[in-house]
Design brief:
Radius of gyration: 21 Å
Distance between the termini: 39 Å
Oligomer: single chain
Helix content: over 70%
Largest sheet: none
Shape: globular
Length: 351
Amino acid sequence: MRAHRTHCTIRTSVTLAVLAAALAVSAVAGLALGPVRIPPGQVLDILLAGPAPGTGAGAFGAIVWDVRMPRVLLGTVVGAGLAVAGAVLQALVRNPLADPFLLGASSGASAGAVLVVVFGAGILGFAGGAAVPLAAFAGSMGALVAVYAMARRGGAMTTGRLILAGVAVQYILSALTSLVLVLAAHPDQIRSVLFWTLGGLGGARWGELALPAAALLLGTGLLVALARPLDLLLAGEEGAHTLGLDTGRFRAAVFVLTSLVIGVLVAYSGAIGFVGLMVPHAARMAVGAGHRALLPVAALGGAVFLTLADLAARTAAAPEEIPVGVVTALVGGPFFLWMLRRSTRTEGVVG
């Protein structure tokens, strides 16, 4: 047993080191590549010189520090947060196909944010600058609760029930967002609605990084502290009850925490799908299902994946930019179909 734990610890440490190196490389690539290409060596010189004026970095320095660095950092934070949220949701519903996007959490957060963007004067106007994140959280929480309630009603929750409930909620929220798009009075509002539905990191600014970073760090820290009860819940409710876990209250509390993280992140990135589906699955193959190792690995893996996806979105059709949500969907859609095919070998699609 001790030898097995030592082996797992070594494997986790190696995986984290590899992912940290991959994140550093992908971040440098994200800073170097774009409509204006900057040699990687010069990027490193600019980073070492710091953002202070008068360093001689010139226009390249402004591009790196003012334009690309906030975008890369936001992609890192959002990718990590969505991957962690996906891993936790998969444990809560005991289903590897759960994902913030597929379960409607991202769509709910987008719908809430869009309502405030277009009708902000009358909705949550008292909240000031926190109105959009607050509305995104409320939408995310409402969508998760609705999907979970529909999937549980009338019998045991199955993959089929979960997917159908998620699709139904997404259709409703998509119709709501489309209605808001029709009612939007100004071109700026229309662009904002499209941003929420397709996802993007182009609007990243230094002043907007603090809240999503805090949500990621605090949320991930709390979830890692809850690793053992998450492991118990993943193993089965009956065994968790036997060991003294109040699964109903625990699941509700973690749903709220996860929705808060998703809502804050989506408030700054729009709806970006499939990160929370693919990355946790890959992380489990690397380090197993134990959440104490899984969540940090998923966080780094999600950061790497979304950083590279955003790089592809900026460069694949340059000088035009593809919404990063389109890139993740092109990768995640086939992956989801593959996982669905695997799951339906042992379970009916309807239940």
